[in-house]
Amino acid sequence: MKRRQSVFTKASRLKLAVSLFLALALVNCSTIEHAQKTELERQWVRSTLGAENYGFRHSERTAPLIENQTIYQGNGLDGVVAFSQENGRVKWRFDVKNGVESGFGIDDKALYFGASDGNFYSINKFSGKIIWSFPTRTENLGTPLIHQGVVYFISGNNVLYALDSKTGKQLWIYNRGDASSLSIRGATKPAAYKNHIYAGFSDGYLVALSINDGSLSWERKLSNNIKFVDVDASPVVEEDLIWSASYDGSLYCLSRIDGQVQWRYDEGSSVAVTIDKDNLYFASLNNNITLLNKKNGNLIWKYNFDEEKGIPTQVVLHKNLALFGQSGGALIALNQKDGKKLAYYIPGQGISATPAVDQARSNVYIFTNQANLHKLSIK
Description:
Layout: H1 2-36, E1 40-47, E2 65-67, E3 70-75, E4 79-84, E5 90-95, E6 105-106, E7 110-114, E8 119-124, E9 130-135, E10 145-147, E11 150-154, E12 159-164, E13 170-175, E14 191-193, E15 196-200, E16 205-210, E17 216-221, E18 236-238, E19 241-245, E20 251-255, E21 261-265, E22 274-276, E23 279-283, E24 288-293, E25 299-304, E26 316-318, E27 321-325, E28 331-335, E29 341-345, E30 356-358, E31 363-367, E32 372-378
Antiparallel strand pairs: 1-32, 2-3, 3-4, 4-5, 6-7, 7-8, 8-9, 10-11, 11-12, 12-13, 14-15, 15-16, 16-17, 18-19, 19-20, 20-21, 22-23, 23-24, 24-25, 26-27, 27-28, 28-29, 30-31, 31-32
């Protein structure tokens, strides 16, 4: 009896060990699968409109701006709203006739933006009260740059302004003139590096201007096509290189010193590239999101989506994700390593504005063509 009991005990232990091994294997597999899964979960949705709109809806292109506990959003119909990040409560509203489509600049006290009523504004970012306004007498579509106490922006008639950020006093202007060919409605955000301002214009040129007086240092044409030569993709500057694209032409890598072409990638775009270490993410009008080597333009991976989903926004990064919106579709989250789709969120009416990510809290904000602001958690 003792011998049989001992054998039985050994067999039981072996069976138990195998069972535990299989159970642990299943748990580990489940953990791995869960770790690879990405979810975009809606937290709240808020309309930015002061009154219900029953008329025509157009593309909303103003990217959300996050600072501390506030998110700022402008719409193309009636103005700007400041929301609480936590619960979407309205902190203040600033009414503007015909709305705001330019994007924002911000400093320690003020929020800056161009509006479609022919004015450029500086308002108190805490209260929404106006500080100063500057008349451009045309719609303003370019996101402003705030740099060393000066605000730089491009108006709808191809004029780059440099204003004192505290007073709104004009320091200098650079007038490129209206393009003779067909033009896409939009404008770049200028970039600053050392003693120059870099900006693209609707005549197809990228220019380098003296930061002191706006005098031209060099110019480079980025498209030789007959129509839609606009350079609306904001230039990105890093050390001695600049990356920018024309609408129906190509993406260019240029020398910052003299504008000489280093390489080109033959797809056009209206949004800026996103730099990540040795590579860059490029959202093209060919319905492609590509990861390229920033020094030589070599392709690392490409994600293509259906043309019916519209035009992609600029790519924003969060941890292992590359996120972008589609003007006729969804918010898409791709794996940064291989470009595989990990998650998506369909808000309705598409996304034309670049998403904004709160990196610390793993939240993403998207602004839809219905003028609704969505807060999503990334899990």
